[in-house]
Amino acid sequence: MRVRIGANEKLVLIGDSITDCGRKQPVGEGRDEAFGRGYVAQVNALLTSGYPELHIRVVNTGISGNTVRSLKARWQRDVLDLAPDWLSVMIGINDVWRQFDEPLQREAHVHIEEYEATLRELLAQTRPALKGLVLMTPFYLEPHRADPMRAAMDRYGQVVCRVAADQGAIFVDTQAAFDRVLGHIYPAALAWDRVHPNPVGHMVLARAFLGAVGFEWNRVA
User: Does residue 49 carry a catalytic annotation?
Assistant: First the structure.
């Protein structure tokens, strides 16, 4: 299967710190570390080297600490105004995490009902103009599914799965991709806090994304 992103098309990836990874501001594209040091940079490098003739334009608009509520506040600037052909959204880690690491700061908590409603609202504004939409689940690098934060993250991931089905989007289960690796590697070897991956963890994300959009791993340009 040929990669689904077409020639001269623009791919915008939006999310939190996992997407941000120190990318260039205000728009993450250009030379050197403009794409950040995470999976977006890896996706850009692989798309550009694997399909140089397509001239796919990758743009990173992740911002550290964001929740879906944060995305709503900047959606016009960081998605709609950029007029992407393809959009990838990975959000939800902070929506869940703040409920655990800042339990008394309830105003910062984004509960699952708000999470789903806001995600649906944002995509409703955007989907008609897109050629392709990719929705990636949030994740937590904890193999024990009964762990309270892992269980909560899985519930938010199930929301993403439902919304992807309703929107006709490509669904990327990042938690499942990590679970395969966590069967062999201790979580701290991928992320000291079980949230912010090292380069190996980011490659897990990049591979999951690219596999979902039809990247041909054995292709010779």
Answer: no
